[in-house]
Design goal:
alpha/beta; Rossmann fold; seven-stranded mixed sheet; 7 strands; about 20% helix
Length: about 140
């Protein structure tokens, strides 16, 4: 599935839809260049999973791992931009694991690739049947 997002709000809404569709133990890998919207998508996923009040999604570039409680389980947000050898196996199954800059795609249940387009972002889903989303879900 491929979707074009022309705004930050559309990317957030896409994330919300993804968040609402999750069971709670998926490993989702986010691939794309700096500034593509990976963390924005994670913010939307957290909103869709109903992140608890007082928590705010931030890029884990310097902290490596951020955890967020939601009404639908835990989000574990990992960033491999500065580190290449972090062992994530302990996080698998502990909640929704969202990995930015993954070094090993074999752990990924779903891969979301984000690419720049002149009109916005092209968001490409691989192995996304478990998300139960279709092109018709997004009518912007």
């Amino acid at each position: 599935m491929k979707i074009i997002s022309t705004s930050e709000e559309q990317t957030l809404e896409l994330g919300r839809q993804i968040g609402r569709s999750l069971k709670g133990d998926e490993v989702i890998c986010l691939v794309g260049p700096l500034g593509a919207g990976k963390t924005t998508l994670v913010k939307g996923i957290a909103q869709g999973m109903e992140i608890l009040e007082g928590y705010q999604v931030r890029s884990p570039t310097f902290t490596l791992v951020n955890e967020y409680p939601t009404k639908r389980g835990k989000i574990i947000h990992v960033d491999f931009y500065r580190v290449k050898d972090l062992d994530i196996t302990e996080f698998i199954g502990q909640g929704v694991l969202l990995i930015e800059w993954p070094t090993d795609l074999t752990y990924c249940d779903v891969i979301i690739r984000i690419e720049f387009l002149p009109e916005g972002r092209l968001i490409i889903f691989e192995n996304a049947k478990s998300l139960q989303l279709t092109d018709k879900t997004f009518s912007w």
